[in-house]
Amino acid sequence: MGVNASVLAVDAGNSKTDVALIGEDGSVLSTARGGGFQPPVVGVRAAVDALAVAVTQALARAGEHVDGVRHVSACLANADLPVEEAELAEALLGRGWGRTVEVRNDTFAILRAGVDEPRGVAVVCGAGINCVGMGPDGRTARFPAIGRISGDWGGGSGLAEEALWFAARAEDGRGEPTELVRTLPGHFGLGSMYELIEALHRGRVPQEARHELTPVLFATSAAGDPVASALVDRLADEVVAMASVALGRLGLLDEEVPVLLGGSVLAARHPRLDERIGALLAARAPKAVIRVVAQPPVLGAGLLGLDHLGAPPEVRNRLRAHYA
Asked: Under a CB-based contact definition with an 8 Å cutoff, are residues 150 and 129 in contact?
């Protein structure tokens, strides 16, 4: 006879999805991995269909050990607004994977994975940039994080665009000199910014390859280029602005509280970026403790699900130990 699983945990990013089926005692009964979750590109129905592939695999791998799932805790990329979370929760509930469903933006999974209680702030900088905060009283702080129209600046894609802008202007004389004029086209084996502009425009360098220019920007900064360094500094300013505003909304600016950094750009631990973030945040929130998240986000989705069910500490600890 099978058992009821406590939580079906889903962490779905733009490029991949992780699913974990969690037992009543916090043990991981099965896992699966699938492709990215992009409802703005393919539509909600198709995006959930793609999600279903990994969910079905996880349920099948648990086999006869599972009769049903109490709660689905889904942390999803592109669930940027409450109305989108509600829309996606309805779509997931319609699949019958669990008796209840809660959908959050995927940044919440990174935050919850890195803290022992739902209290703190996380800033994530990968392809884009986002920040969320949680308080033990259930309050949250968040930003729309849907691009320039919501006031965002930064992220790997944004940094690459800025680097290209400054390098193009440096080459034709509209802007100040910068080594980016050499290092950006050089990354693709090209001799000038004009060649790179043409290659991007004509598709010889695919649009998705632009993200490769973000590490080039940081390397150019580390070599002492003032323009590249100014962009790195501005990213630090943005990270601290988001974190300090979220802390302020939760009344945590003057408390000892974790500020977690995640995503490929922040996890790379660039010295200039790290040092400026540390100095600026110390001035705004002197007791804040900066940490880089090492735990997988699906752990955070699972813990949020266990929080929802009121699971005791030993159950949450067992789940965390599985991903230690």
From this structure: no
Amino acid letter for position 265 = V
Token pair of 187 as six digits: 């990354």
In this structure, which amino acid lies at residue 176? Answer: E
- Contact between 161 and 200 under an 8 Å Cβ cutoff? The reply is no
Q: What is the pTM of this model?
A: 0.88
Tokens found for residue 261: 């950094």
Q: What pLDDT shows up at residue 65?
A: 63
| 66, two tokens | 């599972």
Enumerate domains of the chain plus CATH numbers.
3-105+295-322 (3.30.420.40), 107-293 (3.30.420.40)
pLDDT category, 1, cuts 50, 70, 90? very low
**pLDDT level of residue 14 (50, 70, 90 thresholds):** confident
Comparing CA positions, the residue from 105, 131, 130 lying closest to residue 120 is: 131
Cβ-in-10-Å burial (0-12, 13-18, 19+) of 146 comes to middle
H helix or E strand, kind and range, residue 323: none
